[in-house]
Amino acid sequence: MNVISLTFNEFQENTYILYDETSECVIIDPGCSNAREEKILSETIEKHQLRPVRLINTHCHIDHIYGNQYIAEKYDLPLESHRGEIPVLEAAPQIAMMYGLKANPSPPITKFLDEGDQLTFGNTTLDVLFTPGHSPASISFYNAADKILISGDVLFQGSIGRTDLPGGNYDLLINNIKTKLLTLPDDVVVYSGHGPSTSIGFERKNNPFLQQ
User: Fold this and answer.
1) Are 148 and 189 in contact (CB under 8 A)?
2) DSSP 111-153
3) pLDDT at position 77
4) How does pLDDT run across 33-67, given as a tens digit for each residue?
5) What kind and span of H or E run contains 172?
6) Rounded average pLDDT over 150-166
7) Which neighbouring-strand residues pair with 127?
8) What DSSP element (H or E) covers 68?
9) What topology is assigned to 2-210 in CATH?
10) Dihedral sign computed on CA atoms, order 110, 32, 166, 142
């Protein structure tokens, strides 16, 4: 599995395109917030001659859903996420107004993903991990074959997702990181919702939030 990372919007959010040798791809957390960023995303897909087959949100905070409508309409894809993120998605327009921002309305979540599900595209399988704490129902995606984790805003290089937003829970987040992510092999590469990639081993040894 190959990973393309594109950084968009005011929040410097990482949008991911995952693809394999079949040229099928999934788009995770499209953060493109204007026509220029939408063009960058679609031209990247065209450059690699990919065929989008799934649109997924790890969670539904505004910076991760800006491009949902654009991707859903352009590639005729339903939105997939956890059922517990519906209230977060529905609150996004009001949250955008609080930041003085304007966001296109997102399509609703119509395909629900949960702990233990396996998400497939091409010849690739992603295991769905339920990792709430940053948001009420965040999910992460683990590809065991290539040792890649898409963590959303759960785990960052040297940090963790903030828990002071509605639905956040610090103790729950720490517990999920320790019991579901740090149990993965040290050499698993972690692609986060913001900032650079890291590894499970590095975070296990160096992340100050995980040393207690």
Assistant:
1) yes
2) EE--TT-EEEETTEEEEEEE--SSSTT-EEEEETTTTEEEEET
3) 98
4) 999 999 999 999 999 999 999 999 999 999 999 99
5) helix 170-176
6) 96
7) 118, 142
8) helix 68-75
9) Metallo-beta-lactamase; Chain A (3.60.15)
10) positive
